[in-house]
TrEMBL record:
Every NAD(P)-binding domain range: 123-419
Transmembrane segments: 43-63
Organism field: Gossypium australe
Membrane topology annotation: Single-pass type II membrane protein
Biased composition (Polar residues): 10-19
Record-linked InterPro entries: NAD(P)-bd_dom, NAD(P)-bd_dom_sf, UXS-like
Family: Belongs to the NAD(P)-dependent epimerase/dehydratase family. UDP-glucuronic acid decarboxylase subfamily.
Name of this chain's protein: UDP-glucuronate decarboxylase
A Pfam family recorded for this sequence: GDP_Man_Dehyd
Main location: Golgi
Compartmental location: Golgi apparatus, Golgi stack membrane
Superkingdom per UniProt: Eukaryota
Organism phylogeny: Eukaryota, Viridiplantae, Streptophyta, Embryophyta, Tracheophyta
Length: 445
């Protein structure tokens, strides 16, 4: 007998467990966030947070005032040594290297609202005559500067006005020994440059100059390669020797005696240029080469044998001005602030060089002696002495390339710059601190 399913109406029908959701209200996706913000003053907190964030970004985006070195006698003597590049120059020579170590910005442009990041720069020979003025400019620009100097010819007094500045470091070190640093740029100025020191060293310690120019340059190029820094070599007009071309262009290969008394310096610098270009071609190091012509100004060594410092010191001491040979050999003299401007433009630019950096104004030694007489003592005597070996007869730079590619040319004439140097020498020789008025007059002229 088969089974049968019966329905009894009196029995309760089983209830269903199925769920039926409420119908979705229109505009719920819009009204719910609004109701959420309006409850418990949440909207007020949002506006307060926005205001605080805006204030923080505004404060931190404002550039702090640059460090100004304590007052020194050179503040009035050399106003150009603590000035900034014009905005046009910064834009013209902007590159990735201006943004700081390890920057990946290929355009070199600083994003809107952000301040320029200071570079970390090492200056070898930074306590010397030219190096110390370069350090002044870099510090004033907001960079962190590491001075490396063994004080063979450099003087701690040249940079001591930066002591206490957190952006300044001084390392007593000889570049012939390796040095490990993390930097963005390397200005390689280390090497005695005066003829008196060069000849003395070549006779007493003949390997010193070669080691500085060769081993020292190798060490600094190796550092540039390891950390990806840009490297600037300060070469010299001495690479032209006793030139047969006048004025001298960068394409001229020179007329140098490789075994003369001056060759330790001349050939050392020529070798340094060779090494610099080899590292550029073989290792991809970014390099710059400057060939510096005669430079003068405050902080020069008083008795270093250079003609301008010789004449100025002799005139101040009431000694005869010593002219070697017939006095008809010519030189060109640039003021130190002009040279520093050229070096910085070369470093920030996109051209390797070499570039002649000098003042094309040409003077014979007798004409220079006359200018010194006019500036210091009209009664100063001139004394002739036998000429030195391999002394170049003519020296004048052709700076057409620097004018065209760097937008650089010297601004300070000899008659304007010489009084500034005289004031510095007078203070250092005699301790005369009453030269402010003379300096201001010379600067305004």
């Amino acid at each position: 007998m088969g089974s049968e399913l019966l329905y009894r109406g009196s029995e309760t029908q089983p209830s269903s467990d199925s769920y039926s959701p409420k119908p979705v209200k229109p505009w719920a996706s819009v009204t719910r966030p609004i109701h959420y913000l309006l409850r418990e003053q949440r909207l007020l907190f949002v506006f307060v947070g926005i205001a605080i964030a805006t204030l923080i970004f505004t404060v931190f985006a404002t550039s702090p005032a640059p460090y100004v070195a304590p007052h020194s006698r050179f503040t009035t003597l050399i106003p150009d040594s603590i000035t900034y590049f014009p905005i046009e120059t910064q834009q013209k020579f902007s590159s990735a290297h201006r943004l700081g170590f390890g920057s990946a910005n290929p355009t070199g442009k600083i994003p809107l609202g952000l301040k320029r990041k200071g570079l970390r720069i090492v200056v070898t020979g930074g306590a010397g005559f030219v190096g110390s003025h370069l350090v002044d400019r870099l510090i004033a620009r907001g960079d962190s500067v590491i001075v490396v100097d063994n004080f063979f010819t450099g003087r701690k007094q040249n940079v001591m006005h930066h002591f206490g500045n957190p952006n300044f470091e001084l390392i007593r070190h000889d570049v012939v020994e390796p040095l490990l640093l993390e930097v963005d740029q390397i200005y390689h100025l280390a090497c005695p440059a005066s003829p008196h020191v060069n000849c003395f060293v070549s006779l007493t310690k003949p390997c010193v100059l070669h080691k500085t120019n060769v081993v020292g340059t190798l060490n600094m190029l190796g550092l540039a390669k390891r950390v990806g820094a840009r490297f600037l070599l300060t070469s010299t007009s001495e690479v032209y020797g006793d030139p047969l071309q006048h004025p001298q262009k960068e394409t001229y290969w020179g007329n140098v005696n490789p075994i003369g008394v001056r060759s330790c310096y001349d050939e050392g610098k020529r070798t340094a240029e060779t090494l610099t270009m080899d590292y550029h071609r073989g290792a991809g190091v970014e390099v710059r080469i400057a060939r510096i012509f005669n430079t003068y100004g405050p902080r020069m060594c008083i008795d270093d044998g250079r003609v301008v410092s010789n004449f100025v010191a002799q005139a101040l001491r009431k000694e005869p001005l010593t002219v070697y040979g017939d006095g008809k050999q010519t030189r060109s003299f640039q003021y130190v602030s002009d040279l520093v401007e050229g070096l910085m433009r070369l470093m920030e630019g996109e051209h390797i060089g070499p570039f002649n950096l000098g003042n094309p104004g040409e003077f014979t030694m007798l004409e220079l002696a006359e200018v010194v007489q006019e500036t210091i003592d009209p009664n100063a005597k001139i004394e002739f002495r036998p000429n030195t070996e391999d002394d170049p007869h003519k020296r004048k730079p052709d700076i057409s390339r620097a004018k065209e590619l760097l937008g650089w040319e010297p601004k300070v004439s000899l008659r304007k710059g010489l009084p500034l140097m005289v004031s510095d020498f007078r203070q250092r020789i005699f301790g005369d601190h009453k030269e402010g008025s003379n300096t201001n007059n010379a600067s305004s002229s």
